[in-house]
Amino acid sequence: MAFTVIYDACVLFPAPLRDLLMRVAHAGLVRARWSDAILDECFHNIAASRPDLDSIVLDRTRRLMNAAIADALVTGYEHLVGALALPDPDDRHVLAAAIRSGGSILATAANCDGRTR
């Protein structure tokens, strides 16, 4: 059985990496997980950095991601956020989603703020 991986916003931000991670999950090599908050952060940053992209296209990408990996969307983690202490409090929702989903690995990047550098 594949292990569960939480995809953070910064690894979903670049389209080529997002595509690769989606393919890995779709092939069943990992059980990909994310939350609406992670996708909100990701797509907000994509829209901010790429104003040429139509919001309809970004919304479609988000819907297709959720449809492609049917059980990827983590819910019911919000009550955990307040109890978590991290150097960056804005990352608590990601850790809470990882805990809720039983995630084994958190796919993120150094200096992750939802964008790659």
Can you put this structure into words, describing what you see?
The N and C termini lie far apart (34 Å). With 117 residues, the protein is an alpha/beta fold. The chain has six helices and four strands; from the N terminus they run E-H-H-E-H-H-E-H-H-E. The mean pLDDT is 92. A four-stranded parallel beta sheet has the order 3-2-1-4, with helices on both faces. The protein has a single domain, classed as 3-Layer(aba) Sandwich (Rossmann fold). The chain is globular, with a radius of gyration of 14 Å. It has helices spanning 9-12, 15-26, 36-49, 55-68, 78-81, 92-101, and strands spanning 3-7, 30-35, 73-74, 105-107. Helix 3 runs antiparallel to helix 4.
